[in-house]
Each structure stands twice: as C-alpha cells, then as structure tokens.
Amino acid sequence: TDRLSSANWCHGSTGALTSRLLWFKLNKKFNILNEHDIQRVYLEIDHSVNDIIDKGLSINNFSLCHGIMGNLIALNEYSLAFSNQKIQQLVQSTLISLCSVGMKKDWLCGVNDLFYNNGLMTGLAGILYGIIKIYYDDNYDQHVLNLSFY
C-alpha cells in the first residue's frame, strides 16, 4: 500500500470514494461516461474501498471528516449501491465496536486528537449523525459527505 495515501474524507480515499460513487450514479442515470472512463471509475472505487478497509477503520478518531464514521458512511453507501453484503457486515460490526468504545471509554473526536468538540465534521454531532444515517435512514446515498442535503 501507498504510505502517502490516507483514508479521510477531507483529503483521502474516503473523499475519492464518495466522489466516484457520485460519478457512478450520474452515469447510471445520464450515460455520460465512455467505456474507458467507466472502467477507471470502477478501479478507483475498488482502490478507495480497499484503502479505507486497510487504513480507515482503525484510525484513532471517530469523526466524519478524518475518522472512522466518515469511512463507515462511505462504505455503507458503496455496500448498498453495489449490493455487497460482506462490506455491509463490516460496516455494521465496526459501527457496533465504535459505539462500544464510545460508551465505555470516550468518543474520540476533534482536530488531531488535541481538541474535543461537538461539531458536525470533527465532533460528536457528526458521530451521532453517522449512527443515525447508517441505522435509520433509507436515503443512504444522500448525506453530508457528498453534499446531498435533500
């Protein structure tokens, strides 16, 4: 694996996966990509998913922006878009573990683990948003990470 890559929404594989899933959905609806571009999008989706699984589920931060919750939302969207039960089970088990750590020890969030906050992208509000989004929201592809607020 590339040591320079990261599994973050703000500057890593999670953001790349989120954007490639948008391309996938736009192409499905409007047929805007040629065959070469479609294959490239699929390769980038696969790379991003693997990078998130390899690096993004053991981050010492639970936030949306650069933590596990953002990675789980992206993987959840992927698993449902591609009907991937294995990834869906991974999302569910990781979310249960995250909640267990949060309830028993602490909700790891903030900026570089130095500042604990309640904000959406780097704090507790985002962690709660992710739990609700994954467990209770049928609109799995409409979330704050891909700027779909409708």
TrEMBL record:
Pfam families, per the entry: LANC_like (PF05147)
An individual GO BP term: peptide modification
Sorted UniProt keywords: Metal-binding, Zinc
InterPro entries linked to this entry: LANC-like (IPR007822)
One GO MF term attached to the UniProt entry: metal ion binding
Positions with a binding annotation for Zn(2+): 10, 65-66
Highest taxon listed in the record's lineage: Bacteria
Name of this protein: MutM
